[in-house]
């Protein structure tokens, strides 16, 4: 999935930020360099202008001296070379004067320069007139002109020296001013360079923190995930487009890992539940096999015995012995009930009928020392139709007799009650025997089979061989709950109370009908 970056400034890409940073730094440096360049150009221009003015005046001063020297040579020698030199130098001086006039300004110095230029031009006119009178051999005239131009040359020279002296003073002041400006410019350039360096250093530090800080925080998230903390809340980071994308991808990866871990944990939980169910089923099968083995050990060819008892009952009935017939019929019912096997279930009504037959045999054997009472509404179809593991009540009644009243010379009473309370069925087997100490009750409900005391060899002749532990295990596995049995021993009565749900799911299966 392609993750879009935010267009905001905080989400700007590092490439864009770096380009902007370098452009800004280069622009600042260029501005500083341009300022320095312009400042130096201005200083150089002022300096050149000052030197140029001095140079023009110095050149005019020098050429004036040469022209004056040419005139003196020609007037004294009348040589052609001196005449030619006069005309050349006078022409150059004339150009200097014209140039001075063209650059005249209305300042004190400009007015003086203008005066000098005009005096030079006037001087040249008189010098040329003196030269012409010399060439015309007018001695008196050129002598007078010569005296005049000497005076004027001296005056011009003195005037120009005053101007040049003043220019030297002004140049010194100007040079000092230029030096100050140059120092200020250098100082300003240094400040600009320092600002640029500070800006670059600040941007480098800012970029360093901007890059390393979110990466360091992201490394912390990764460490917490490595430690098994998948419930961390990753806060989005909008430092740059790349970091924002990195955080978004990392957050998506954490969510995927958390979902994957949840799936693995759920799979493990289901596997554990399935293993527990398999273990419970295996325990159930082992308990059934154990019960069946114990039941088989208590039987010796039950079908042969059952048929023999039936035949004996019929013989007794034919001979009019009603008591013997009833005794054998009850014995046959017990054998027939056992023949269905412990791997099948039974209704509460079938269990009660089996207990009634069993108690009839005991009462016939031991007489009035054993008293039995039954309290149950056999018309309540819901209660009587409660499905329980086969051979649940008879072992409880056997235990009440063997460990309760069989040790008492005066005998005792066994009572079987069944009633409903809400959605629960209560089944109570009570005896008035010797009772049970609290530690033995605790051992029966939470201890090992050896602690129940129902597996003694000398007492097997009275029992089916199915102990309380076996009954308790099968009930807990059948109803998938531990609180199926309570034991109360008080007031000379010992009560085994079964509390079972009336409409437990899974019950009602594998319940063969009564085959009387």
Describe the 3D structure:
The chain has 516 residues and is of the alpha+beta class. The protein is built from twelve helices and seven strands. It has helices at 14-77, 80-102, 108-135, 139-226, 241-297, 302-318, 322-339, 348-366, 381-384, 393-405, 438-446, 468-479, and strands at 345-347, 370-376, 387-389, 412-421, 424-431, 485-490, 493-501. Strands 2-4-5-7-6 form a five-stranded mixed β-sheet. Strands 1-3 form a two-stranded antiparallel sheet. A hairpin with a 2-residue loop joins strand 4 and strand 5 (424-431). Helix 1 (14-77) packs parallel to helix 3 (108-135), helix 2 runs antiparallel to helix 3 and helix 5 (241-297) packs antiparallel against helix 12 (468-479). The two termini are 75 Å apart. The model is unreliable at 1-9 and 449-462 (pLDDT under 50).
């Amino acid at each position: 999935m392609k993750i879009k970056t935010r267009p905001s400034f905080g989400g700007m890409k590092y490439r864009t930020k770096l380009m902007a940073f370098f452009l800004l730094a280069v622009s600042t440096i260029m501005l500083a360099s341009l300022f320095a360049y312009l400042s130096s150009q201005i200083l150089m221009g002022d300096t050149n202008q000052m030197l140029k003015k001095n140079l023009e005046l110095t050149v005019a001063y020098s050429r004036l001296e040469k022209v004056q020297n040419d005139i003196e040579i020609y007037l004294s020698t009348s040589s052609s070379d001196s005449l030619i030199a006069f005309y050349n130098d006078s022409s150059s001086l004339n150009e200097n004067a014209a140039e001075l006039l063209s650059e005249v300004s209305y300042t004190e110095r400009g007015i003086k320069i203008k005066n000098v230029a005009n005096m030079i031009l006037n001087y040249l006119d008189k010098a040329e007139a003196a030269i012409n009178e010399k060439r015309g051999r007018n001695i008196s005239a050129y002598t007078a002109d010569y005296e005049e131009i000497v005076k004027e040359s001296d005056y011009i020279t003195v005037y120009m020296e005053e101007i040049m002296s003043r220019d030297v003073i002004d140049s010194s002041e100007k040079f000092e001013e230029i030096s100050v400006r140059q120092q200020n410019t250098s100082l300003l350039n240094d400040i600009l360079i320092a600002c640029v360096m500070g800006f670059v250093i600040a941007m480098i530090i800012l970029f360093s923190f901007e890059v390393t800080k979110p990466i360091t925080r992201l490394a912390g998230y990764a460490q917490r995930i490595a430690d098994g903390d998948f419930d961390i809340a990753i806060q989005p980071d909008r430092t740059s487009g790349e970091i924002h994308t990195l955080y978004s991808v990392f957050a998506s990866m954490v969510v995927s890992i958390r979902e994957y871990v949840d799936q693995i944990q759920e799979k493990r939980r289901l596997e554990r539940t399935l293993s527990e169910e398999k273990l419970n089923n295996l325990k159930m099968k082992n308990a059934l096999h154990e019960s069946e083995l114990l039941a088989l050990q208590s039987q010796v060819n039950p079908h042969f015995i059952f048929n023999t008892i039936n035949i004996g009952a019929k013989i007794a009935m034919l001979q009019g012995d009603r008591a013997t017939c009833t005794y054998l019929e009850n014995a046959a019912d017990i054998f027939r009930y056992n023949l269905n096997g412990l791997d099948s279930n039974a209704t509460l009504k079938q269990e009660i009928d089996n207990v009634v037959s069993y108690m009839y045999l005991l009462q016939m054997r031991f007489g009035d020392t054993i008293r039995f009472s039954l309290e149950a509404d056999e018309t309540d179809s819901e209660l009587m139709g409660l499905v329980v593991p086969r051979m649940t009540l008879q072992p409880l009644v056997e235990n009440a007799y063997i460990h309760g009243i069989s040790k008492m010379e005066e005998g005792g009473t066994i009572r079987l009650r069944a009633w409903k309370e809400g959605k629960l069925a209560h089944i109570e087997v009570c005896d008035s025997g010797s009772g049970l100490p609290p530690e033995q009750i605790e051992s029966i409900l939470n201890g090992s089979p050896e602690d129940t005391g129902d597996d003694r060899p000398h007492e097997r002749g009275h029992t089916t061989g199915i102990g309380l532990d076996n009954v308790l295990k099968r009930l807990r596995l059948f109803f998938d709950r531990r609180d199926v049995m309570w034991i109360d021993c008080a007031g000379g009565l010992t009560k085994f109370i079964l509390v079972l749900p009336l409409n437990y799911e899974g019950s009602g299966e594998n319940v063969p009908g009564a085959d009387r």
